[in-house]
Amino acid sequence: MMNKNKLKQKLIDEVEENKAELINLCSSLIKIPSENPPGDSTEASQFIADYLGQFDLEVEWHESSDKMFNLISSIGNSDQGKHLIYCGHTDVVPAGNLTKWDFNPFSGEVKDGWMLGRGASDMKAGLSGLIFAFALLKRLQIDLPGKLSLAIVPDEETGGDFGVPWLLKNRIIHGDGCLIAEPSSPYNPTIGQKGSYWFELEVFGVPGHGSLSPLAGNNAITDAVKAIEQIQQLWDINIEIPKEVQPLIEVSKRYMREVEKDREKFQSVLEHISVNIGTIEGGTKSNVIPESCKVQIDCRLPFGISEEEVSTFIKNKLETLDIDYVIRPFGFRSDANYTDAENPVCKAITENITFVTKHEAYGVMQWASSDAKHFREYDIPVLQYGPAFLPSIHGYNEKVEVEQIIRCAKVYVAAVIDYLYAE
């Protein structure tokens, strides 16, 4: 009978012995600019395919949009056992103003124990760990009683239409469970997300000479301000959280109190609709009564309320104002979603975090959203776990601790054994 713990320890030791290769892999990926927009993944995709090719791993290329390539590679036996997907994205947010960086965002430099550069935390460190763990299982010729697929997507940071949802819609991937190497806390993978509802509100007015306002015309900007005041009341809705997810909410609050202690004051965001007035654009000149004002709004939805219910609430509020408006949904849209903590894919990750680190691990709720929702829409249980320095994500001077990259790769390779060799 196979001793799983012995095999896991062998693989963990191999990661430790070859950690320099892992760190070099991550550094090399960061050196390849893959900002989205524009979203050209050609160079990063070719580099990954070449790396996997060293170990005779075949890679399928799927171009979902111009110069956006999804890569799929699989090992194991597809005719028996379960199918596990390891997923990551190659795209990163733009580096922005280069003068505000303390280092070259595409240097991939390792300094004082930190990996530096755009994508270090989100998510080229996690992606490198997945690629390395996947290749390690192949080069060691581990006989898996099931299938492990590596799905590398080019489009997540702008909404992800040409990444995970494209692969699922076109039936290119499907599995029994999935791990996305998105940034997370070291001991707390993300097993649930709030929903998303992004929309643009456009309010229409009647133009006129500014010297006659408010007696003449109809000011679209002041009407939009009235509308914003009503929309912000979404936060005040008392939402009944379903019983089945209340334990997840409570353990996530514990996490915010005890782990990310600076987040303690934000605990209530898990049970309320957040409302962010992101952009506002209107008018042409100070002396012209504006005939149009556009406002883009990001709402995140807790469990217990749907996008349809939110839309109805907004419509009812705005109808009391006697304004001329239209609402156009766009971007991220989903209801709150989660994977049960007892699901085998969640247990495989959390239990191996503890196996590797000897530290308590448990899944928590994310107050934002991600590609995980797409897998759940196709009934694929999923969670997120990856190396990160959370304060640096999407900001200047992005970085991640080298030790976190190595630790996560150890968890990835051990979790495959527990998941696929499950009795």
UniProtKB/TrEMBL annotation:
Gene3D superfamilies: 3.30.70.360, Zn peptidases (3.40.630.10)
Cofactor(s) for this UniProt protein: Zn(2+); Co(2+)
Coiled-coil ranges per UniProt: none
Any Pfam family hit: Peptidase_M20
One Gene Ontology molecular-function label: succinyl-diaminopimelate desuccinylase activity
Biological process terms in GO annotation: lysine biosynthetic process via diaminopimelate
Metabolic or biological pathway, per its Swiss-Prot or TrEMBL entry: Amino-acid biosynthesis; L-lysine biosynthesis via DAP pathway; LL-2,6-diaminopimelate from (S)-tetrahydrodipicolinate (succinylase route): step 3/3
The entry's keywords: Cobalt, Hydrolase, Metal-binding, Zinc
EC number: 3.5.1.18
Domain Peptidase M20 dimerisation stretches: 191-322
NCBIfam families in UniProt: DapE-ArgE
Protein name per its UniProtKB record: Probable succinyl-diaminopimelate desuccinylase
Organism the protein comes from: Virgibacillus necropolis
